[in-house]
Amino acid sequence: MNVGRSIRELTFGVSDGLVSILGLVIGVASAGVENQIVILSGVSGMLAAAISMSSGVYLSNESEKLYLKSKKKISRIFNKSPIYDAVVIGITFIISGFIPILPFFFISSIYAIILSFVLTASALFTFGYYRANYTKQNPINSGLEMVFVSLLSACMGYLIGYLFRVLFLIWT
After folding, report:
1. pLDDT of residue 1
2. Does the pLDDT of residue 172 top 50, yes or no?
3. I need a surface site. Which of 6, 56, 112, 119 has the fewest CB within 10 A?
């Protein structure tokens, strides 16, 4: 795989796979359900999102390619395959999406949430650090950017799950 050629899809797949699934599993876990429900939610959400993202990348790249072709414009998109890009983003999403789910196979409660958050933040930083080799950024800054930009949405998932738990307990 030519990493430089696929940096957009790799970054999108890794970031979204880690963050959306982290937000999902810690949101569900913070609602106080059993680990099996968290794992089921995480795996089904991960697979559905990977398929959705792959098809979205394929359709958007194919649309851009056809548009540019209709306008007789030459672009980098002609050097890229919409199918290849869809496969790259799908695979990276699935691989990354497993990271926040893993702790729930072994531990429960707040400890699984914390470990999931730490593993995800570590993976984001590592990918951002590695990404700097291709973007010519400072590796530390690139890693920190991946962590802080990405984890904001995951925190929202936790907050939503917590609020649901509080509201649910009030209603019962």
Report:
1. 65
2. no
3. 56
CB 161 within 8 A of CB 29: yes
116, 22 Cβ separation under 8 angstroms: yes
Which residue type sits at 81? S
Dump pLDDT digits (tens) for 121-135: 999 999 999 999 988
Does residue 108 come out as left (phi exceeding 0), alpha (psi in the -120 to 50 range) or beta? beta
Residue with more model confidence, 98 or 27:
98
User: 109-135 vs 7-30: helix axis angle to the nearest 10?
Assistant: 170
Look at residue 7 in the predicted model and tell me its pLDDT: 86
Predicted local confidence at residue 78, as pLDDT: 55
Q: Where are the alpha helices (DSSP H) in 31-138?
A: 35-70, 82-101, 103-106, 109-135
Q: Average pLDDT, whole number, for the chain? A: 88
Half-sphere exposure of 111 (CA within 13 A, CB side): 4
Q: Which of 2, 7, 15, 30 is nearest to 159 (CA)?
A: 30
Q: How far apart are CA 115 and CA 13, in angstroms?
A: 21
Residue positions counted in the chain: 172
User: HSE on the CB side for 3, CA within 13 Å?
Assistant: 8
